[in-house]
Amino acid sequence: MYKTYHLMDYLPVRFSASEEQKKERQICYDFKNGILSEEVKIQFLEKIKQIIGADKEFWLVCFIPASSAAKTKRRFGSLASVIREEGYNVSTDAIYNKYDRLPEHVTGKTENPTESFGIKQEKVVQKKILLIDDIITRGETFSRIGKALEDMGATTIVGLFLAQTIKPEFTPHNNSVNLTEEEYTVYSEKLLEDLTSDQVNRSGYDYYEEETYYQYRGSYAQDVAGWSDQDIDDAFEGDPDAYWNID
């Protein structure tokens, strides 16, 4: 297992969050869309300095591609520039998109989420690789790329992620009623019987939503990897083909 670091936590939307967790959640969304805040830039540079130290010559900073070349460029372009300005060796094409992963390609035909990635062996051989990405959930993509880099002669693989997905144990959190977990479960079920989901969303009640597995039926993320509708909505922003990049 390769060493990994992360700068903050990502709490999926379906869990009750503190103000700080909401802030970090929004930072993750912004970063995915190519917004590099001063706070995030500083955190990345500080952590990179801790990992690499003065041994810059033998390290190469790379990025795990997004689902398309355009998204990869938008997401990591600014960060790559500021890291390079600090004197680190950076490559935005040592690992690259061989082709864009469109929804029709995500049909369970393969269990390898990295098959759309290419690696330029001449850039990674005999190098210590620092792999950067946005969010790590299970680490499958990172592990597969790490193995591929090792097979091509990279000597060290370290992962640095903006955030790590966390899933706390369910705790009832309705502000208007002080219930035990068992009482709250009964209360939630009754609420769902009485109201449509749209009404529930407008009602102001804060309830725990049971996981379902039908909205994204037919996608690899749900049918093969086993992700629920709620996880796809939260972690993958409603786009099941984002499974190939987020973990």
Describe this structure in words.
- The chain has 247 residues and is of the alpha/beta class.
- It is built from ten helices and six strands; from the N terminus they run βααβαββαβαβααααα.
- The strands form two sheets. The protein has a four-stranded parallel beta sheet.
- The radius of gyration is 20 Å and the shape is globular.
- It starts with a strand and ends with a helix.
- The model is unreliable at 103-110, 170-179 and 194-209 (pLDDT under 50).
Reading side by side through the largest sheet, how are the strands ordered?
1-6-5-2
Q: How much is the average pLDDT?
A: 79
**Could you give the order of the helices and strands?**
EHHEHEEHEHEHHHHH
Number of strands: 6
Uncertain runs: 103-110, 170-179, 194-209
Number of helical stretches of at least 4 residues? 10
Amount of helix: 25-40%
Rounded radius of gyration (Å) = 20 Å
Structural class: alpha/beta
> What fraction of residues sit in β-strands?
15-25%
* Ends apart, CA distance between termini: 15 Å
> Any idea what the shape is?
globular
Largest sheet: 4 strands, parallel
Features:
247 residues; alpha/beta; 6 strands; 40% helix; globular
Summarize the structure.
This protein has 247 residues and is of the alpha/beta class. Helix content is 40%, strand content 15%.
Topology:
Elements: E1 3-10, H1 19-32, H2 38-52, E2 59-63, H3 69-85, E3 95-97, E4 117-119, H4 121-124, E5 128-136, H5 140-151, E6 156-165, H6 181-194, H7 197-203, H8 220-223, H9 229-235, H10 243-246
